[in-house]
Design a protein that fits this description.
Elements lengths: L10 E3 L5 H5 L9 E8 L5 H10 L13 E8 L2 E9 L4 E3 L2 E3 L2 H9 L2 E7 L3 H17 L7 E6 L11 H11 L2 E4 L7 H18 L5 H8 L8 H21 L1
Parallel strand pairs: 2-4, 2-7, 7-8, 8-9
Antiparallel strand pairs: 1-3, 3-4, 5-6
The structure holds guanosine-5'-triphosphate.
């Protein structure tokens, strides 16, 4: 669904790829930019999740999603990053499979990282998650895009169709982080999911500061021979030889 327009706490941005979107890129103001797309089946709580992350609030009243882009700033390891979050229209499941719209594909291609959302009350949305992950990989061939899997609506236990263990298994199979959240009841887990993703992107954007490189630079270099010491030892050896010769 689409966030109600008059929420003044959220800045709306034009669709990614448009000239206007390029103009309002916060990265130009010196901040590094992290672009995140939130994808999943219809009704799993994508808009609610994005709103929680941006405003810490759960409103529970949304219009149908037209695919909006929002922004905020986040502190990651002492640096302020500009985060753009793209809410996407829910994916429709048809008899002959899934239909990925060109709009959704554009969003996924645009993104530096993806949040895949399913609802614990909807087993189909869980099944869709792994197919979506595959689709993301196909659109970013050769690049390991950071992905987080989020199981939403954890508060609706009486309607549960997906065990948390399944979500965990799926995420570890896909090599992603996993969060089970209730957007309606808690904002901490939501924040953590986005935070982990931003951190991963931030590290990817700075390959020179990867732990491997830092470690390499910390390995002590072998000391170069001390010339004074060498000279002293040479003199000692020489005088010993002279002494030997004199005594003969
Ligand atoms: N109980 C409960 N309801 C939630 C939670 N998250 C979202 N909802 C409700 O689920 C419904 C769908 O939420 P949306 O955020 O609009 O879902 P969406 O994935 O954006 O939907 P589409 O735009 O159709 O793709 C709304 O009525 C929300 O209030 C949650 O954690 N718990």
């Amino acid at each position: 669904m689409r966030l109600i327009q008059n929420m003044c706490t959220i800045a709306e941005y034009p669709a990614p790829g448009s000239a206007a979107a390029a103009d309002c890129c916060l990265g130009a103001a010196g901040r590094r930019l992290v672009k995140i797309a939130v994808v999943g089946a219809s009704g799993v709580g994508k808009t609610a999740l994005v709103v929680r992350f941006l405003t810490k609030r759960f409103i529970g009243d949304y219009e149908r999603n037209a695919g909006n882009l929002y922004t905020r700033q986040v502190q990651i390891e002492g640096e302020t990053l500009a985060i753009q979050v793209q809410d996407t229209p829910g994916i429709q499941v048809h008899e002959n499979g899934l239909s990925y719209t060109e709009q959704l594909n554009r969003c996924i291609r645009w993104a530096d990282a993806v949040v895949i959302v399913f609802s614990i009350t909807d087993y189909k949305s869980y099944e869709l998650a792994s197919q979506l992950h595959q689709h993301v990989r196909q659109l970013h061939l050769g690049a390991r895009l950071p992905v987080v899997v989020v199981a939403n609506k954890a508060d609706l236990l009486h309607l549960k169709q997906v065990d948390p263990q399944l979500g965990l298994q799926l995420a570890s199979m896909l090599g992603c982080s996993f969060y089970e959240v209730s957007v309606s009841e808690n904002d901490n887990d939501v924040y953590n999911a986005f935070h982990v993703l931003c951190k991963e992107v931030s590290h990817k954007q700075q390959p020179s500061s990867t732990p491997e490189k830092r470690r390499t630079s910390l390995i002590p270099r072998p000391k170069s021979p001390n010339m004074q010491d060498l000279k002293r030892r040479f003199k000692q050896a020489l005088s010993a030889k002279v002494r030997t010769v004199t005594s003969v």
